[in-house]
Amino acid sequence: MRALPPEFYARGVLEVARSLIGCTVEHDGRAGLIVETEAYHESEPACHAFPGPRPHTLTLFGPPGRAYIYRSYGIHALLNAVCEPEGIGAAVLIRALAPVAGAQEMRARRGLLGGRPAADGELCSGPGKLTQALGVHLGQDGCDLSRGPILIGPSPAPLSSPVLMGTRIGITQAADLPWRFCLAANPHVSRPRPTADASAD
Q1: Secondary structure E strands in 9-89
Q2: What is the 3-state secondary structure (H, E, C) of 137-184?
Q3: CB 128 within 8 A of CB 72
Q4: What residues contact residue 3 under an 8 Å CB cut-off, 6+ apart?
């Protein structure tokens, strides 16, 4: 897959978060279209970079276009794309994908949900689900998203619906910032779904 260059990420994190909607994430033969993202920046307290560089957050302050992968609640590895110039702590959380390749392998990796295989809409409809489905792990923190093993490529086609903007999910600080983006009416977006059209800004 042709990957996005590091220069794509060397922009404002909000611009990148919006631009990543419709792009493709690929790992180990499994792939999905990005249908939901959230932006995080060192200037606001919900971002891991807010306290300044720490041993476990150094990737956030590194070159743009690297993967920042951390463990959430001691369970899930979450995938982020580092943005803005080196030295600034900012990243885009990949929140949801629409599977386009390797759905059966994704289903096997996700395991049984309530005694049954995961439905297509459940495979990657959340940041922990998608890393489990793709096989992304903490050991890949810092990898170059233009070289792999995790790749992000450009959108293969024009977006089929508007991009919506809303507040981020699952945080208690800076929860009023409208820094979440998703593809309207897409069944793989996690709930609750935003309702404001980002193109109106």
Answers
A1: 24-27, 30-41, 67-72, 76-82
A2: CHHHCCCECCCECCEEECCCCCCCCCEEEECCCCCCCCCCCCCEEEEC
A3: yes
A4: 145, 146, 147, 148, 151, 152, 153
Q: CA 100 to CA 20: how far, in whole Å?
A: 16
Q: Domains plus CATH for the chain?
A: 6-161 (3.10.300.10)
Using CA atoms, how far apart are residues 152 and 64, in angstroms rounded to an integer?
13
- DSSP assigned state of 192: S
Cα distance between residue 45 and residue 40, in whole Å:
9
| DSSP label of 186 | -
Is the bond preceding 149 in cis, omega lying within 30 degrees of 0? yes
158-196: per-residue pLDDT in tens?
A: 888 999 999 999 999 999 999 999 999 899 999 888 777
pTM attached to this predicted model:
0.94
Q: What is the 3 state secondary structure string of 45-112?
A: CCCCCCCCCCHHHHHHHCCCCEEEEEEECCCEEEEEEECCCCCCCEEEEEEEEEEEECHHHHHHHHCE
CA distance 67 to 70: 10
Nearest 10 degrees: CA dihedral of 12, 47, 86, 135? -100
φ, ψ for residue 71 (rounded to 5)? -95, 130
Q: How many residues does the chain have?
A: 201
